[in-house]
Fold this sequence. Notes:
Distance between the termini: 52 Å
Shape: elongated
Number of helices: 7
Radius of gyration: 23 Å
Largest sheet: 10 strands, mixed
Order of helices and strands: EHHEEEEEEHEEEHEEEEEEHHEEH
Helix content: 10-25%
Number of strands: 18
Amino acid sequence: xxxxxxxxxxxxxxxxxxxxxxxxADALPQYSRERLKNLVQGGRLQAAAGVIWDPATxxxxxxxxxxCVPAPRAADNEPQDIPLNIPFEDDHLLVxxxxxGLVVHPAAGNLDGTLVNALLHHCAGRxxxxxxxxxxxxxxxxxxxxxxxxxxxxxxxxxxxxxxxxAAHDVDxxxxxxxxxxxxxxxxxxxxxxxxSSANRQKMAIVKDGRGKHAITHYRTVAAFAGxxxxxxxxxxxxxxxxxxxxxxxxxxxxxxxxxxxTPGKLAPLLxxxxxxxxxxxxxxxxxxxxxxxxxxxxxxxxxxxxxxxxDGL
Length: 314
């Protein structure tokens, strides 16, 4: 994975009174504060008087330091040359427009051929390491059969910053869905805690027993058809299968979703003729603040051909 990296740092006078790990994080924005703290505790920071072991050490400003960063160890997963559509990339992160059918992360049943395998190939030699491992930082996921946008971290600093935005619900995520029936009212807010279904562990369900995760979806009808509608769903929270479960809970399951709803009988011939065999869901908008540059970024993904054909058919 390459040689270890030696970084010489001279702290500015403004670092006076700061904790060591805070001063290092300001001087080395490519690393998270937690990563730098671990390096210090591992004896990898040298000062004129010797090794500094305590990340809480107060700085005087002007210190000359040498940090030794070990080469990130290889990820457990194999890099694979899988074509990717990447609307944006810099040294810290990238945005991927994922096609339907591509699994995001290796797991039982999908040990390779995933987005992670593809990113390990695409980013070869350009991953500074998430927690010391040369791997892409997956901060959120979309289902295998959902298409659209997701952001991936390439550095500890980006991973930490993006994860904080997702945890605070500060990321703008808007999905285009095609549902059975026409919602009444045409716009609304769905709130329902989500957890694994006690009847089927492969499914999520709305629960009221205190074990679920808080989940809110906002929806608005974009276009109404005979027996179906195009809906925009905005996630206030982001839980597994959230849109699919929430829309089904109000009687408007996504077309093509065999897990959470059945396609209305009169629409089944259309889906069959189109060969449409996935949930009609596309992650169309993704907006966030760049965790390093602090620039506001927003990306739009056009509807994929199969969903365009479905809407045209309706």
